[in-house]
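Before going further, learn to read the protein records used in this course. The integers have meaning only within a learned vocabulary of local backbone shapes. The record below shows the convention in full.
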Amino acid sequence: MLRIKHYFLLLQILVTLSATAGVNIKSGNFYISYTDHDLVRFNGIDIMRTYNSKSSEKGLFGIGWGSEIETRLYVIGDGNILIKEYGAGTGNQFSPVETNETRITECINQLVQAALQNEDIENNPVEINRFRREMRNNLETRFRKWLLYAELGLLKQPVLNENEKWESQDLGYQQLFKIKNGFKRIQDDGSYDLFNQLGLFTGRYKADGRLQYSISYDANKHIAVLKDKGNNSFLFTTDKEGKVRSIKSRQGTSYYWYRGLALVKTKDIANNIYVHEYDSSYNMTAIRYSNGTSMLMEYDPSTFFCIKVTEPNGNITEYEYKTFFDAEGNVNDNHYATLVLSKKKGTIKTDSAYYEYEIKDKPDGSSYLYHFIYKQNSDVFEEINNEQCEMPDYVIKNKRKHSFTYNQNCIPVSKENDSVLVKAVIDSNWNKASSLHIHYKKTNTATERRFIYNNSGNPVRITEDTVITTITYSKSQKVTRIANAQTTLLYKYNSFDQLIAVTLNGTDELLFVYDKDGALLRKESKKGKAVADAVEAVYKQLEKYISETGILFDY
């Protein structure tokens, strides 16, 4: 089973209220996401599409574009299953619980015949055996070849039995089952997705079976209608190749125009027009806006890494990518760095940020971030992580070193820097501290904090030297009271379990005001802003205090 973790940073640029762009500083991939329809406030979902310059996938919105609704399942002839998240996104490999050597052999035999038919290999024993060995030994290549030849109609799909099971660890633990009408993918939280016999994504559901949204297709297997949990409908029209021409919702209609495979123009529900330009490799080079401004992207001609972005407001960001080599002189794909130079329009000052990542492999085939360096102008941050817990052994921030140790369950049991040493005794029932011993080096003083938890693992009593803090909860484990010798806070909630009031020492009250959709509008007090600020300060301080039930990474 392939278990690969990807470590990268996306540097984001807010383009408009409905669009966010950025650059992946590992791969040099330029991306931009648009939210075309947003019905979240109507108890629905939003429709978002994302362009990635490193993607060559052809999706609902043309080459390089992907969206959640075009997640697709592919059956591989060897018994493995691949789910392409977001259509053009990460490939998620599901392996059968039991390996079937007969299927693998039949799969490779089919691939050999397809390669010969497609004239990809010469018809002689040496070339055929070389190709056969490659297909058996290289799983990624086998997947890629199967998808290619299946699209060309050169392969016969394997027969799968109902209730067959597959597993994946690529994006957290997931299970996949063959069901009567297709496939069911179950996430580790119990939520699940459904796919039809063709691998088309047909619905997303909560663990209790509540619908999030369902998708139906027309006779040509093109997306037609999406219905969400709020009974909102999105109506799609497509061209003969299945690319989306329009999406209609209660908010309005968005439109899409193409030149060949490329999406070259869109009109959103507010009638704003966006024109997209590409180079010959489908790297997006410009976005033209209705107000006459543009966003411009430049790429390295050999690697196609994005090296410069000019924003509509004139700000410029440039990217310089650093390559590292292993002991044999080969490029080390697990060690990379990028220097980011930013300059605002009309200024001569350039801000710099440097990111360096070093990834190491584990014996089980997974990987972890071993070493990370971040420099911004004169500020420096460095982190070394351990293999077992994938958490920091030490962190250096602006020349100050913070060291950590862990128990066998990867719970922090000590933290030390130049001013403090903290040691924790861990409650094995909750993996939280039963006590914290804190030694302040500069004053040579110490304090001990002891915790008692309820049956839900929430602290009900914290004793720090002679000060006792008690916490009580509702049936739903919402805090209803925090009290010590000096302070008492009382909490009040509405029927939706939203906090609506905090009362300090029986007199001063902080009120929480929400809009009709349940979003917090403001916090206030009938006694004025000064009282509101005072209650909020105490409330936040005690909330933080009772939440610190272990060693913190507060460097």
